[in-house]
Amino acid sequence: MEMETPIKVLLVDDHEMVRIGLAAVLGTEDGIEVVGEAGSGEEGIRLAQEYHPDVVLMDLVMDGMDGIETTRQLMNQFPNLKVIVLTSYLDDEKMYPVIEAGAFSYLLKTSRASEVADAIRAAARGQSVLESQVASKMMNRFRHPQNEAPAHNDLTDREMEVLRLVAQGKSNQDIADDLIIGIKTVKFHVTNILGKLGVEDRTQAAIYAYKNGLAE
Fold this sequence. Notes:
Organism: Paenibacillus glucanolyticus
Domain Response regulatory: 8-124
Number of domains: 2
Helix content: 40-55%
Strand order of the largest sheet: 2-1-3-4-5
Number of strands: 5
Structural class: alpha/beta
Largest sheet: 5 strands, parallel
InterPro entries: CheY-like_superfamily, NreC/VraR/RcsB-like_REC, Sig_transdc_resp-reg_C-effctor, Sig_transdc_resp-reg_receiver, Tscrpt_reg_LuxR_C, WalR-like
Pfam family, one: GerE
Order of helices and strands: EHEHEHEHEHHHHHH
CATH topology of the largest domain: Rossmann fold
Distance between the termini: 37 Å
Domain HTH luxR-type: 148-213
């Protein structure tokens, strides 16, 4: 039986003990391999170029290049890379910029080891994870004024179906299988949904769906 290729993970955190602890914990998880540890944003970019990880666990506050700029540069170089923020900070001035820079998921360092491992596996499947406090703050940020018609009024019935599946964390392939349509058609619908809702990515679309009672 052929073994599945492990998810390659790069750790970027300027605290050595954090990196040691994460590496030790993740080293016990099936299907996850820590391929490198970086103590700075600059080193993280260099190691990403060397090891081509699938997922990066990213600290936000570091000496030199912070996690926001590191995420931005990584996403410019590796558009398919999944960056999971793992931080102690819930500040608006840090959280929103790193998500806008391309961070795929956002977890707090108070998360359990199993939650971090699950987020890594979810990211590899194309499913983002937001810590509950982060999701709540994001909902408030994207709340539409009460005197405006909600943006989802412009969605077609098919686009509403796709949005609900996006909110469930399903990948384009999963959605195509569920709705029995082509994956190119799914991508077309997702692009239309993001444009009509005025959001930048699937995570924000999912938050919109939950906030507006559109998700199961």
